[in-house]
């Protein structure tokens, strides 16, 4: 009976040790995944230093260039006074009409829902957009992201812009649901 009790106790101790090791491994893997994701976001933002140095017209040309790189056709920069919210227009590789509003703001700013409401009022009605896209060099506020989700406006914030700049195709970014994810925290002006 004593041997059985010792074996049972040893089994319980061994199970507890194995469980502790497995849980510690999971926590370590989750922490590493979070660290790598943060590193990727910081790297993407660092790659945008030249974007924050652009003027509005240069930023619109930059976005048009990314569209062309990704196989969009009939891409035109149409921004300027009286553009009615369209800075870049074109056709996605599958033929859908894309209309893009560009906001090149400082990294510590954010785009609010008022800008999205204005764009929503013209993107489909005035410009016949199948896919309205709002590209910003900063973050979107939570109300802006919620508004965009309700009205099917695709958002490309500073993080996604960094990934787009680094080679991720626009069509891949359009499938993301930034309305329910992402961040709305502003970056400090000296944040990299």
Q: What is the overall shape?
A: elongated
What is the topology, as strand order, of the major beta sheet? 1-2-3-5-7
Rg is 23 Å
Number of strands: 7
Distance linking N and C termini: 66 Å
Query: Which residues form runs of ≥5 with pLDDT under 50?
Result: none
Mean pLDDT: 83
Question: Strand share of the residues?
Answer: 15-25%
Q: Count up the helices.
A: 7
The string of secondary-structure elements, in order, is HHHEEEEHEEHEHH
Give the structural class. alpha/beta
Q: Give the helix level as a range of percent.
A: 40-55%
Sheet of most strands: 5 strands, mixed
Supply database-style keywords.
192 residues; alpha/beta; 5-stranded mixed beta sheet; two-stranded parallel sheet; 7 helices; 7 strands
Q: Can you summarize this structure?
A:
The protein has 192 residues and is of the alpha/beta class. It has helices at 2-46, 49-52, 56-69, 113-123, 142-150, 158-165, 170-174; strands spanning 73-77, 88-91, 97-103, 110-111, 131-136, 139-140, 154-156. Helix 4 (113-123) runs parallel beside helix 5 (142-150).
Q: Could you explain how this protein is built, in words?
A:
This protein has 192 residues and is of the alpha/beta class. 50% of the residues lie in helices and 15% in strands. The strands form 2 sheets. The protein has a 5-stranded mixed β-sheet with strand order 1-2-3-5-7, sandwiched between helices. It has a two-stranded parallel sheet with strand order 4-6. A hairpin with a 5-residue loop joins strand 2 and strand 3. Helix 1 crosses helix 6 and helix 4 runs parallel beside helix 5.
